[in-house]
Amino acid sequence: MPRVVAYYRVSTDAQGRSGLGLEAQRDTIARLCGAREWEIIAEFTEVESGKRHDRPELVAAMHRAKVTGATLVIAKLDRLSRSAAFLTALQESGTPFVAADMPEACETTVGILAVIARSERNAIARRTKEALAAAKARGVQLGNPNGAAALRRAGRGNVAALEAVRAKAASRADDYAPILADVRAAGAASLSAIARELNKRGIVTPRGGDWHPSSVQRLLTRIKANSSV
């Protein structure tokens, strides 16, 4: 059965205390999950004012979905954000999500926003290229003729690629660090015990698989390396 993490948001403290709007969101998500036979494994509720831009409960919901391989489900698309930039960032974060009020159109909508963003970047690149061409026509010398060869000799391309891989691994380790700390605090001491508890909690490896002592050891090594930086 597919698993989901539910995220609810109300705009004021009064609504949060009274449940106004919250129950409707719960019902909407429950109906969708019931119809599609999805299991809700965690729920997060955000109570925020219109002036707040940080959403710790949304971050926590995205984190839970990420480490469990679940999908983030919201009641309405505008409950997540009306900001195109925010939605695009969510898509790029790799966290799959569905809006219960438009389960089919949700991903398409974000995809359209991403296309618009790419179009703007292409327009900027085109204008830059045209400006460089105009400068060259005026006799301005552009760049270093030996630059590419120098980069190849220095191996900077490979270094950059390796740094990107390391950065991604470090970020993933940071995602798992608080969960691992909680597992160990609960009494799991050996690598095998930690792996069993992570699997029991539904936490998946970065590649979406089950945990084994060797994968736990690699994670511990990465977390230790991060803490020493």
- Report the C-alpha radius of gyration, rounded: 23 Å
Indicate the mean pLDDT.
76
* Widest beta sheet: strand line-up: 2-1-3-4
Whole-number total of structural domains:
2
How many individual helices? 10
CATH H level of the largest domain: which superfamily? Resolvase, N-terminal catalytic domain
Bin the helical content: 55-70%
Give the helices and strands as they follow along the chain: EHHEHEHHEHHHHH
What can you tell me about this protein's structure?
This protein starts with a strand and ends with a helix. Helix 8 crosses helix 10 and helix 9 crosses helix 10. The radius of gyration is 23 Å and the shape is flat. It is of the alpha/beta class and 229 residues long. The chain contains 10 helices and 4 strands. It folds into 2 domains: 3-109, Resolvase, N-terminal catalytic domain (Rossmann fold, 3-Layer(aba) Sandwich), CATH 3.40.50; 166-227. The protein has a 4-stranded parallel β-sheet with strand order 2-1-3-4, with helices on both faces.
Question: What keywords describe this structure?
Answer:
2 domains, 229 residues, 10% strand, Rossmann fold
Produce the secondary structure layout.
Blueprint: E1 3-10, H1 13-18, H2 22-36, E2 39-47, H3 56-68, E3 71-74, H4 77-80, H5 84-93, E4 97-99, H6 105-137, H7 147-154, H8 156-185, H9 191-200, H10 213-227
Parallel strand pairs: 1-2, 1-3, 3-4
Helix pairs in contact: 5-6, 8-10, 9-10
